[in-house]
Amino acid sequence: MSEAEELGALRDQIDAIDQQIQQLINERARCAQQVAEVKQKYCSPGDSVVFYRPEREAQVLRKIMARNQGPLGDESMARLFREVMSQCLALEEPLTVAYLGPEGTFTQQAALKHFGHAVSCAGQISIADVFREVESGAAHFGVVPVENSTEGVVTHTLDSFVESNLLICGEVTLRIHHHLLTSEPSASVTRIYSHAQSLAQCRLWLDQNYPNVERIAVASNAEAARRASQEPGAAAIASEAAAELYALKPVHANIEDQPDNTTRFLIVGQQPTQSSGDDKTSILVASRNEPGALYHVLEPFHRDGVSLTRIETRPSRSGTWSYVFFIDFEGHRDDERIVPLLAEIQSKAVDFKWLGSYPKAVL
């Protein structure tokens, strides 16, 4: 058999497999439509139907990764199914997701990574605007950054939870790669725009390569790219998506100081999320202003063997030198061992707020 004949036979096989895949995807989509019909049928009068279930999607994606046998990697396979699930969910209910914009930001990338490309993304000017969009019902969910592995916590996000009644219903992590973008020759760059966090994450690289070039912080990396596309002598630190959106060239790629630079984003919404079997819980606690107060709040976690994943301190708005603590830990608030733990912590705290229990990031 000749090369052309062997390739022809393999291509015929691929065409046949593609046809089967297409038929199965449409069959799955029809099942999704039937799920929507059943939910509407049994929904109580006056209640709204909940179509998107974060815990269910997390469980499905974990199963996909667990049974994958290659040659595609586990995450690659899960991302393919994420898009299938996104398209199927859109048949049940098209979702609108608010994110920290404008178009081309890392937060938009995080939104698409978590929800897939079948959602309608609405960029907002600030984190507070993301919360307002979801609170008003203009968006089903919001996506906001909460911490970066290099630069730490995003304080605006934590402060928004103090006043808001929105709940955390998911998380997504995104590996952050920064690129120097410009339409100019790199040697003619006189100023570099970027978000303050991105400038900080690339500080050492900038010191070595552009030590005398002005660095200007702006509201977002996408805004930086927009300015760089319009101003002579300007460059931006932003993503590949921003480069494509604003027709800029990435003259230097992956300029972040830490190669494992990662940002964690939170998904906020109005509905509590049921247990997925592998969850986190976030709470806000204000302790009494007395010796050992924080110890008494944290000691039950150690005693009961519950792993803390993050603790942050923010000034309280109730008085000078008073603080609130944001605590993330493993487990769901409905778990048998977590229920009494939260009750004990609440009894010891001056103020207590459950911010949400949600599936750990799958991808």
TrEMBL record:
The keyword Transit peptide does not apply. SMART domains: CM_2. Its main location: cytoplasm. Residues 1-96 form the Chorismate mutase domain. One of its GO terms (molecular function) is prephenate dehydratase activity. Keywords: Amino-acid biosynthesis, Aromatic amino acid biosynthesis, Coiled coil, Cytoplasm, Isomerase, Lyase, Multifunctional enzyme, Phenylalanine biosynthesis. Residues 282-359 form the ACT domain. Catalyzes the Claisen rearrangement of chorismate to prephenate and the decarboxylation/dehydration of prephenate to phenylpyruvate. Its EC number is 4.2.1.51, 5.4.99.5. CDD domains: ACT_CM-PDT, PBP2_PDT_1. Residues 96-270 form the Prephenate dehydratase domain. This is Bifunctional chorismate mutase/prephenate dehydratase. The keyword ATP-binding does not apply. Residues 7-41 form a coiled coil. GO terms for cellular component: cytoplasm.
